[in-house]
Amino acid sequence: MRLRDAVTAVRETGDFTAVQQAIPYVRFMGITAELIDGDVVGRMRYSDHLVGNAAIPALHGGTLGALMESTAIFKLLWHGETSTVPKTINITVEYLRSARPEDVFARAVFTRHGRRVANVRVFAFQDDLERPVAVATAHFLLVQD
Fold first, then answer.
1. Measured in Å, how far apart are the chain's first and last C-alpha atoms?
2. pTM reported for the whole predicted model
3. DSSP H or E segment with residue 13
């Protein structure tokens, strides 16, 4: 299935599986998305290859960044008016605490959503949304079909 068709399917069904299957990196990282109470929630399932520091042990910061960027993109696709994947302009990640070797979740919030650019804040957490392990601020170029 083409990515554009997968995006259309997401909007019709609310099921992100087709988009997840269309993006090899997302599959490799174990990143999924689902609608919970009408909001997009990203999830990165724990796997040994995600550990960056085996001595602590802690997940690699880059994996957290990938989860947060992907969650923001999934949210933009869900709320967008185009079937084209938004282009990342920049992303800044603040690492707040070590992420334990277990599943990580993410929620994205629009701080501005215009016709051409969207600003998104993303919170990655494990047990408690109020205690994030990392927070990201990202800017995306919204490409029209």
1. 18
2. 0.93
3. helix 3-13
